[in-house]
Amino acid sequence: MVMNIYIKTMTEDDDREVVANACMSIADIIKDYSYMALEPYMSWLVDATLTLLREESACQQLENGSDIDDEDDTEHDEILMDAVSDLLPAFAKSMGYHFAPIFAKLFEPLMKFAKASRPPQDRTMVVACLAEVAQDMGAPIASYIDRLMPLVLKELASPSATNRRNAAFCAGELAKNGGETTLKYYNDILRGLYPLFGESEPDDAVRDNAAGAVARMIMVHPQSIPLNQVLPVFLRVLPLKEDHEESMAVYNCVSMLVLSSNPQILSHVPELVNIFAQVLVSPAETPEVKAQVGGAFSHLLSVYGQEMQPLLSNLPPAHANALAAFAPNS
User: Fold this and answer.
1) pLDDT tens readout for residues 54-99
2) pLDDT band, residue 1 (cuts 50/70/90)
């Protein structure tokens, strides 16, 4: 019953704040319940979402004025559109790849907000939405790569830190889920991400998301990444400073390279020991991430044995003790 009221509110209420709250409530319901609970309302819900993306709902008419029909009219409420754009990732999370046919309907109306004539906050709203959809919808995103990649590459160079951060996250998710289609963009993505690793990037969260993107690229197509050039730049920004949602992707990648005894990563053992120690003592990292890093450290010990001793004795005691917990019992 409550879903009926919320969906009706989306298109018929003339107060934008009320509509935004209805969208947020629906997104929460979708996250809390399975797709089965949602299914009876789905076609009605998709139609309401389309109406809002096309800026044709009751609350959007008042603002636009009934006689103004400028498709690029940028006068819309940011809070409202953020709430609407949060519905798409919620659908994707609940439906997985089954979201593909619905996403196909919503794609063009969403992309209208990514036009160059739109304000930067509209474009980054779209990029963030696409990143989360790609993450949960998976492989079907491949058919959109050629449309999306030019937007994402352009956004990597945005003057706004939020835009750069979302673009880096999106580039990684597109690379991870876009299959072979993304390979031709790998060099462009790496070129776009490179400045985000440097001193000129003032924002730690942007840098963390750039690291996450590179990690995802390495995980899906390690042979398409010039590791000898990329790893020194990548390792230099670790451990992550601010966006620990990227930890699993980043340290999973580092651990995979270590456990497969990749010769490129094994030339960085001193840096790895230092990074692993900092991750293990960090209160911001999860036990899962620490176990991953501990396993990689344990592998280094089994490969290098006593040669590791000088590296460990140079560490602060707390760091050395954190690593010692993962040493195989001698």
Assistant:
1) 999 999 886 555 454 454 444 457 889 999 999 999 999 999 999 9
2) confident
Rounded-to-integer distance, Cα 57 and Cα 1, Å: 21
Long-range contacts, stretch 324-328, CB < 8 angstroms, 24+ apart: 325/280, 325/294, 326/280, 326/294, 326/295, 326/297, 326/298, 327/298, 327/301, 328/298, 328/301, 328/302
Same domain? For 82 and 162 the reply is no
- Among the listed residues 59, 55, 138, 152, the one whose alpha carbon sits nearest the alpha carbon of residue 103: 138
**273 and 254 housed in the same domain:** no
Euclidean distance between CA atoms 12 and 22, whole angstroms: 11
Closest CA to 26 of 70, 83, 105, 67: 83
In the chain, the number of structural domains is 3
Same domain, yes or no, for 315 and 277?
yes
3-state secondary structure 99-140: HHHHHHHHHHHHHHHHCCCCCHHHHHHHHHHHHHHHHHHCHH
State the residue range of the domain holding 96: 1-62+78-118
- Do both 145 and 249 map to the same domain? yes
* In-domain check, residue 83: yes
Residue 259 lies in a domain: yes
Of 76, 26, 70, give the one whose Cα is nearest residue 49: 26
Pure H helices in the chain: 2-12, 16-32, 35-38, 42-53, 58-64, 78-85, 87-95, 100-111, 120-137, 145-155, 161-177, 186-193, 204-220, 227-236, 247-259, 263-266, 269-281, 287-304, 309-313, 317-324
- Evaluate whether residue 70 is within a structural domain: no
Any residues with CB less than 8 A from the CB of 222 and at least 6 apart, and which? 257, 262
Question: Cα–Cα distance between 215 and 297 in angstroms, integer?
Answer: 18
pTM to 2 decimal places: 0.92
3-state DSSP assignment of residue 156: coil
Domain shared by 278 and 166, yes or no: no
Q: Rounded CA gap, 146 and 153, in Å?
A: 11
Burial 95-134 (b: 16+ CB within 10 A, else e): beeebbebbeebbebbbebbeeebeeebbbbbbbbbbbbb
